[in-house]
Amino acid sequence: MKQLFLCIATIFCLAHLAHAAVVEVPLYKFTNTLVKSIDLKCISAEYTIPVSVPERWEIEKAVMRFQYVNSSSLLENKSTLVVKVNEYPIAQIKLSPIVPEGEVKMTIPPVLLDTGYNNISFAVTQHYTDECEDPCAPGLWTTINVDESILRVEYCLKPVPLQLSVIPEFLFDPKIFPHGRVNFIAEGLTSEELINYAGIVASGIALRYDYRQVFFSVSKDIKPNVDNILLGKKDFIYDFLRKKGVEINEGAGALLNGCSPQVKKQKCRKSLIFIGFYAEQQAFF
């Protein structure tokens, strides 16, 4: 009977950003069914898009740009499109029958965007006459073209707390958009071992991300701006960390540490290092 000890170290190394990171995502990707347009019909209607804010993001600026088309039958003085964030109105647009198409660019105050899920709503009140009217007449409609609309977010990364409990929610957070990114640092493993063990770890990460899109990469050193996972035999892991200036007490078991001086030289804003062991029983007959 032989034991193969696989050592896994997670180094959540995030480069210090002199400027905020920026992501731009089409609005339709936030909708539950990936709809390309939103039709608001009758004298009043509302549609809400859930937008997530990850635990580790500090929002500095958010700008939304969207296109709309409204019916040429509407009365401008009685027809309005209101944009709300978590029920707070941030914009009002008069719906004109003379200029029935438009593009709106607006800033969303970061204070309105909470960590977790936020609601961006488009609500209309629209009329075609000053007299009695059919509340759902064919001429009462406004369409938001979400496939041509963009949400642009500028953010900085919060420091990573030195707590193992942050791994499930803070680091592998399904609210991160447009996708997660994880890098494996691997050496000293055969191709078969790498595929096997990386597959096991990647499956666990995908589970934490709630099976949303995650991009994985492999390198021989720490990759900046990405969460890094060391994957290899015990000697490789310990040698790698010692070269980065991380003090290791081999008899102490798991290690929880902050940035070492060498890791900081790689512009690591904050790192959380945890070492765990996986023992695989191999039987020989």
From TrEMBL:
<keyword id="KW-0812">Transmembrane</keyword>
<keyword id="KW-0472">Membrane</keyword>
<dbReference type="GO" id="GO:0006011">
    <property type="term" value="P:UDP-alpha-D-glucose metabolic process"/>
</dbReference>
<keyword id="KW-1003">Cell membrane</keyword>
<dbReference type="GO" id="GO:0005886">
    <property type="term" value="C:plasma membrane"/>
</dbReference>
<keyword id="KW-0732">Signal</keyword>
<dbReference type="InterPro" id="IPR018513">
    <property type="entry name" value="Cell_synthase_bac"/>
</dbReference>
<protein>
    <submittedName>
        <fullName>Cyclic di-GMP binding protein</fullName>
    </submittedName>
</protein>
<keyword id="KW-1133">Transmembrane helix</keyword>
<feature type="signal peptide">
    <location>
        <begin position="1"/>
        <end position="20"/>
    </location>
</feature>
<dbReference type="Pfam" id="PF03170">
    <property type="entry name" value="BcsB"/>
</dbReference>
